[in-house]
From TrEMBL:
One term under GO cellular component: cytoskeleton
Organism field: Aythya fuligula
Superkingdom of origin organism: Eukaryota
Stored InterPro entries: CIMAP, SHIPPO-rpt
Protein name: LOW QUALITY PROTEIN: outer dense fiber protein 3-like
Length: 251
């Protein structure tokens, strides 16, 4: 056999793509689309999606009574509107005993209410002025001061008071009459420093009872001191009880 032929196999063109011929996955992976909502490409802008639903079924029963009932026009959403009305009643009965006659009225002055008339001034005598109060004269009032610290409506400058000379430390003062060091009281150190604790020493108290009888050295057991020294564990040996003895049970 020649070298170009290996067994029954002969070189030929492949009928479809062979994955060994590609360095990348090839047509195994597809680029996601840019349309639709499901499977949209994450690198593309996606517009809002709307769901189109079907038509609602027709309602078998009505939700209102319809034109069967008549609603009056004066019925509003807040209740029945009642317009204001006036009640017509009879004339009240007036009991009049003495009524004025025609001569009691003066119709001469009625022309100024019906016709246009010029203004009319009444001339009367001047009344005499009568005043019970006596107003103050011009000399009663005093103008406010313009000098000094307490002025009413002007700006006051600073004022200084001149006093006499003090008698303290004068040139003719006798310095021998000044107080000496012993004239001032001694200031305690606790006034300006931290105060130390103070202890009071009193007399020795007397021990009550008979002081002739006192414990001797033999009355103390120093071997059993366990307050300030360590103590070894101690074992106490008691009486051996029989295992057949019934124990005492008390309620």
């Amino acid at each position: 056999m020649d070298g170009a032929f290996v067994g029954t196999w002969r070189p030929h063109r492949p009928q479809g793509p062979i994955m060994a011929q590609f360095t990348s996955p090839g047509p195994k992976y597809s680029i996601p689309g840019a349309t639709g909502f499901v499977g949209h490409s994450p690198i593309k802008s996606r517009a809002p999606a709307y769901t189109c639903r079907g038509t609602k079924p027709s309602v078998t029963g009505g939700c209102g009574p319809g034109p069967r009932y008549f609603v009056e026009p004066d019925i509003t959403r807040t209740g029945k509107y009642v317009p204001p009305g006036a009640h017509i009643r009879g004339l009240p009965k007036i009991n009049t005993e003495v009524t004025p006659g025609p001569s009691d009225y003066h119709t001469e002055t009625s022309n100024k209410h019906v016709f246009k008339c010029p203004p009319v001034q009444s001339m009367a005598f001047r009344h005499e002025a009568f005043r019970a109060d006596h107003p103050p004269g011009p000399g009663t009032y005093t103008l406010p001061r313009l000098m000094g610290p307490n002025t009413a409506y002007t700006t006051a400058s600073p004022c200084y008071s001149m006093k006499w000379k003090s008698k303290h430390d004068r040139f003719d003062a006798d310095l021998s009459k000044t107080p000496g060091p012993a004239a001032f009281p001694k200031i305690e150190v606790d006034t300006y420093k931290r105060r130390a604790p103070i202890y009071t020493m009193g007399a020795q108290t007397r021990i009550g009872g008979d002081r002739t009888i006192k414990p001797g050295p033999a009355d103390y057991r120093t071997g059993k001191v366990t307050l300030i020294k360590p103590q070894a564990p101690e074992t106490t040996f008691g009486i051996r009880h029989s295992i057949y003895t019934t124990p005492l049970i008390v309620e």
